Amino acid sequence: MYSKGYTSKLLEEAVDQFASLPGVGRKSALRMALHTLKQPKENVEKFASSFLALKSGIKYCSNCYMLSDTPVCPICSNRMRNHSIICVVESVRDVMSIENTEQYSGLYHVLGGIISPMEGIGPDDLTINELIERVKAGGIEEVVLALSTGIEGETTSFYIFRKLESTGVRISTIARGVGFGDDLEYADELTLGRAIENRQAFKI
To answer: Is 1.10.8.420 the CATH number for 9-57?
Structure first.
């Protein structure tokens, strides 16, 4: 049985898949599907195979939990980076945002989220324990808390601070060039770069 307006079940299924992407409505999905139909077969095959390769081949870095093609990501394996500083972020998108500023040369630690009791996310659901182990292993002089500045981000930062304050490492936070409640990925590069550069000691 075809849905209204469709004479091809194959087209409808393709539209359904495009429409399942974040921020893509059915009209945009239809345009994408029709555009795909116009492309040479080899282009469509390359397009599809790239997503299959992404799903089957991508890994999480064993050190920082950033997405990587290898067991240890290029940032962690780069000897030119400052391996004595760890910048703690919520998501891989935050790493990309900070890297685009070109104002930070240390390492990262991706939590995979922030503490959110309303959503059932606690400390054990994140990579906080792995962060603590990295710090306790030695060689770390500073941990930069670069989490979103809303209540949940502040709660997560405070929790990490309490877990690390006895280790003796410097614990800092990004400067308030990023407004309260803002997500890092939406901050412009200049503002974010200055916030990283002008980081300050974490205060309760």
So the answer is: yes
CA 79 to chain centre: 23
Residue 179 is predicted with a pLDDT of 46
CB-based contacts of 195, cutoff 8 Å, min separation 6: 174, 175, 176, 177, 178, 187
CATH of domain 67-201: 3.40.1360.10
The C-alpha atoms of residue 61 and residue 28 are separated, in whole angstroms, by 34
Domain with CATH 1.10.8.420 in the chain: 9-57
Closest CA to 88 of 68, 72, 110, 103: 110
Predicted structure pTM score: 0.79
Are 44 and 36 in contact, with CB atoms under 8 Å apart? yes
